Amino acid sequence: MHEMMIKHTETREAIVSIIGLGYVGLPLAREFLTAGFQVAGFDVDKDKVAMIRDGKSYIDHIEGDFIASYVSSGKLTATSDYTELEKATFIIICVPTPLGKHYDPNLDYVKTSVKSIAKHLRKGQAVVLESTTYPGTTEDILLPILESSGMHVGEDFFLGYSPEREDPGNRNFTTKKIPKIVSGVTNKCLEIIKKLYSQVIDTVVPVSSTQVAESAKLLENIYRAVNIALVNELKVIMGRMDIDIWEVIEAASTKPFGFHPFYPGPGLGGHCIPIDPFYLTWKAREYDIHTRFIELAGEINSSMPYHVVSTAIKALNSTGKSIRDAKVLVLGAAYKPDVDDMRESPSLKLIDLLLYEGADVSYNDPYIEVLPPTRKYDFDMRSMVLTPENLTSMDLVVIATNHSCYDWDLIASNSNLILDTRNALSGAGIVKDKIWKA
Fold first, then answer.
1. Considering only the top CATH level, what class is 223-437?
2. Which of 45, 285, 389, 398 is 20 to 30 A removed from 121 (C-alpha atoms)?
């Protein structure tokens, strides 16, 4: 059976179904479509399904024309009807794995998806989880649910884990160019899954177990979270010493070995780095291990929006103004430059804290016209147009996201007071007394 699946993969007869058409699922669908596969997308969000069917994209870096062309050809379909899974050869799960209120893993989306798959599972299908999770999830959670169908892994169906590595907006490393880790519950599972991804990804990296693949994803993001926490802490320390942390990092980066630069900011954003490390923290408790390093990094990074607001208060005080009733413009709502992705964006926390302090807050983001409701916030705000008059009317401008399209000369020339959390202005060669850093 697995030989037939491999053959159908090579001939593009295999149908690929992707559950979750978000920032991971839709770019992955694009690669499979480009490689000649038929793709069936599944999502519980009926608005997303409707937009795909209408040939529209809701993710900035995926072109609507691309979606429309494959929808019209019949190569791309979208639905919320999971009975359609029966037609698939490969089923890839790309759903969110958020944290609960107490920083415990919330696998509800994964479990719901797998239960739906199990109801329609047939012989000759392969299931791959891409969602970030703790070691053991694939074999401890997914496998029993799928085998409840009466079929056996490695014989009737195939199961594996391949962690997503999507980096929205990164033009140097698109989905196709980012090396793909693959794993399988059995050798046949690994062989089939490796064959699938090798059709669309330039470099495929097989590992010995699903647990290794799950752990590798966590290590990647823990590594980043810890090092970002380090430079964030150094930013606060060196700020007290009147030392520019960005200049320090630039100087240290001249060492050609043993050093990799990380940069401070107003906090962590995105679905990965602020969340994924705590999946390992939770799992480690089963083994009576307290992950002090990871938790400390989380505390430091979570404290950065408070540090920014504290600095904003000091900056306003230096001009004889109070934060209460001050007109504050936050530049950037996305969590990183040049994307429309607001997941866990520190800008939202900044806006929330500034409002709590009594400030009159506005925001601008060329990629996000309106701040939609999120799990934590509901601001009902619309992006302010960046004009000299609007900038001049502000008591303070906070640079939270350094979009490359921002006209830094316009911003620096017309703002009364600036708090730069990204070193954007110094990077553009602009130095003025009215610019504070945080």
1. alpha beta
2. 45
